[in-house]
């Protein structure tokens, strides 16, 4: 072997022990080089089974996340434009937030292939989308985008009753009057949520295209707390007209008070929490101007108001500038109010009004002992007044807050 190369290393035999030692060292080096060198398969030691440091473990996820609208998009529609999908994988996380950090509620489909918001988006708002999907091997892929919704040129809001924080009677509905006629009632109604504690089914009913009322099947239970959420911002109420309102309000139902007027007997029985607390003599509508029958809700209260017949179709038959203790029962002008101009003997014996329910009172309404003063002081907005045995038709349910004159089947259809 003297002078012959071994695997590219030239080794010369030495003399004596020193030469033998040199040959051993050279051979050791040769063995080390051979052991540490790469194999001839060109795989640099990668495991073909993918279980340790191999190419499969380090490969990119096959899942692809797609988000519509595209990143940076402007003037995006508030409904129908936002959608997240996954290819070659399943969505595991989708979060959408506006620039204030408010989350958009949504749902991933059962097969993990798509996500859509449960509600419309707000107008003039920037949103951030973060979505993650996994492929069949559990590897994740993520995508982040932003977009901005359209700026509405035409808007609407809803004027609502009762007032936030108020305590009202058991007959009080939630009534919302919109500033523009609505041609997408389903979308608008879906954006309004009315809940009660204790819970009770509550349904909405449209009167025309600009009024939406909500009520339970029967009068509210005393003590119920009602919450209303108006999520109208971004709802397209009619073509090109979008809601501009995001507001919540609450109100409480007070004690139960239902007063029943018997127009034939000229009396009114006031029942509170199931017990009669007073029976009041009244005068109802005269034979030529009878009082509506039906369930009516007190919607306004005035210690003193003016009543002019010309405003309700009676020409110049009357114009009384100081009617005391007046409480509105209908939009068309039905009130229960104090009457100081009829003789005391009229109440409880004759019907002489122009359709209102009159209770004995004094001019100026200063006498707290008068039946009208007592009833005014013991009534709140939302209390119910039921009229029966009048020779007139039942009041229309949209004439005031009087939807109780519809059956539940009519209300919910």
Automatic annotation (TrEMBL):
Keywords: Acyltransferase, Cell membrane, Cell shape, Cell wall biogenesis/degradation, Lipoprotein, Membrane, Palmitate, Peptidoglycan synthesis, Signal, Transferase. This is L,D-transpeptidase. The keyword Ion transport does not apply. Residues 257-388 form the L,D-TPase catalytic domain. SUPFAM superfamilies: L,D-transpeptidase catalytic domain-like. The active site is at 337 (proton donor/acceptor), 356 (nucleophile). GO terms for biological process: cell wall organization; peptidoglycan-protein cross-linking; regulation of cell shape. It comes from the Bacteria. Pathway: Cell wall biogenesis; peptidoglycan biosynthesis; Glycan biosynthesis. The lineage of its organism: Bacteria, Bacillati, Actinomycetota, Actinomycetes, Kitasatosporales. Pfam families: Big_10, YkuD. GO terms for cellular component: extracellular region. GO terms for molecular function: acyltransferase activity; peptidoglycan L,D-transpeptidase activity.
């Amino acid at each position: 072997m003297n002078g012959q190369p071994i695997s590219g290393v030239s080794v010369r035999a030495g003399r004596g022990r020193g030469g033998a030692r040199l040959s051993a060292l050279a051979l050791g080096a040769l063995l080390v080089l051979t052991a540490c060198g790469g194999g001839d398969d060109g795989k640099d030691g990668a495991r073909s089974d993918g279980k340790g440091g191999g190419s499969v473990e380090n490969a990119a996820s096959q899942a692809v996340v797609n988000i519509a609208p595209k990143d940076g998009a402007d003037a995006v529609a508030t409904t129908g434009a936002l959608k997240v999908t996954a290819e070659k994988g399943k969505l595991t996380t989708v979060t959408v937030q506006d620039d204030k950090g408010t989350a958009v509620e949504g749902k991933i489909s059962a097969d993990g292939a798509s996500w859509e918001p449960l509600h419309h988006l707000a107008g003039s708002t920037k949103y951030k989308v973060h979505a993650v999907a996994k492929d069949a091997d559990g590897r994740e892929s993520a995508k982040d985008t932003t977009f901005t919704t359209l700026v509405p040129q035409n808007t609407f809001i809803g004027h609502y009753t009762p007032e936030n924080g108020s305590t009202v009677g058991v007959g009080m509905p939630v009534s919302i009057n919109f500033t523009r006629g609505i041609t997408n009632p389903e979308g608008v109604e879906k954006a309004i949520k009315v809940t009660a504690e204790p819970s009770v089914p509550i349904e909405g009913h449209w009167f025309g295209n600009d009024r939406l009322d909500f009520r339970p099947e029967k009068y509210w239970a005393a003590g119920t707390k009602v919450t209303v959420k108006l999520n109208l911002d971004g709802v397209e109420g009619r073509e090109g007209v979008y809601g501009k309102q995001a507001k919540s309000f609450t109100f409480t139902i007070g004690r139960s008070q239902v007063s029943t007027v018997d127009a034939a007997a000229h009396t009114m029985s006031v029942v509170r929490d199931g017990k009669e607390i007073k029976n009041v003599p009244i005068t109802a509508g005269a034979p030529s101007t009878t009082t509506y029958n039906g369930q009516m809700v007190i919607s306004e209260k005035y210690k003193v108001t003016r009543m002019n017949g010309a405003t309700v179709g009676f020409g110049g038959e009357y114009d009384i500038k100081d009617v005391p203790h007046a409480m509105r029962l209908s939009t068309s002008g039905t009130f229960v109010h104090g009457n100081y101009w009829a003789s005391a003997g009229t109440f409880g014996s004759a019907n002489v009004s122009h359709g209102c329910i009159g209770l004995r009172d004094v001019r100026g309404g200063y006498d707290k002992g008068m039946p009208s003063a007592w009833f005014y002081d013991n009534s709140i907005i939302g209390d119910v007044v039921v009229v029966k045995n009048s020779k007139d038709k039942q009041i229309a349910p949209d004439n005031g807050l009087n939807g109780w004159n519809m059956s539940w089947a009519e209300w919910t259809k």
